[in-house]
Amino acid sequence: MRPANMVTSVADVLAGIAIAGVFTRVAAPTVPAYLSNILLLSFSTACLYAGGIVFNDVFDAELDKIERPERAIPSGIISLKQAATLGVILLLLGITAAFLSGIVSGLLAAAIAFFALLYNKFSKHHFIFGPLNMGICRGLNLLLGISIKPPLLPIWYFLAIVPIIYIFCITMISRGEVNGGSKRNLYIAALLYGIVAANIAYFGFYNHTLWLTAFFLCPFLWMIFKPLIKAIKDPAGKNIGAAVKAGVISLILMDAAWAATFSTIYVALLIACLLPISLWLARIFAVT
């Protein structure tokens, strides 16, 4: 289920909720009215992410016998049937929780589940559609948070392109985790990482919150580029794995930057506090 990664999905939703303006000073008195929906959407995204990851291992069970025999299914800790059952339960819980928050949220959750299964079963090994498919899942996840106020989706839907580009990069370079990767892909990832950061900085400038945005954007860039540069110098599997791990977990700082841009420093700090939790979990459970 990749618990460390699940925390990053919750950060995505909280960032979306911040973009929707639920946590702003003007809306602060209404936050208690949204509390149940905030909890439902956070629970929903955690279940959706976990369910998608479980099915990743279900569909990769035969390949993992060769490449990752330490994983739960090939090692015999859990059977293929048990894993598939768990995946179904998690996805259904995620969709149900979202529908309890609202119809639009439920439809978005169903779309996330669909694209997660599409990736795991069909598009994963395609050079372009695989990374794009996974990026769409994360983009929809940000929209899941914004859907706490459905009328704002037509206004901010285009922000989903940022996590789509970012996850496209991570998914693309992750293919070199086992046997090593190409420097070309790593250089492309570096360029796209820069585009992602520039987009977030632009909205910080537009909203007159650039210095707050930079407070989280700078450590985000340091966290993703430090292992990426090492991987460029030596694209061995372990270095690429470290770059992918950092890319996934640093999503929390990117989400904190979104919150600082559209909401308040306090909400951004709250989201950033999820980072040590994710890092701690990453020491116990696999991230990739």
Automatic annotation (TrEMBL):
The chain crosses the membrane at residues 7-28, 34-55, 99-120, 127-148, 154-174, 186-204, 210-228, 240-259, 265-286. Keywords: Cell membrane, Membrane, Transmembrane, Transmembrane helix. InterPro entries: Prenyltransferase_related (IPR050475), UbiA_prenyltransferase (IPR000537), UbiA_sf (IPR044878). It is found in: Membrane. Its main location: membrane. It is a multi-pass membrane protein. Gene3D superfamilies: UbiA prenyltransferase (1.10.357.140). PANTHER family: CHLOROPHYLL SYNTHASE (PTHR42723), CHLOROPHYLL SYNTHASE, CHLOROPLASTIC (PTHR42723:SF1). NCBIfam families: prenyl_rel_EboC. This is UbiA-like protein EboC. The lineage of its organism: Bacteria, Pseudomonadati, Bacteroidota, Sphingobacteriia, Sphingobacteriales. The gene is eboC.
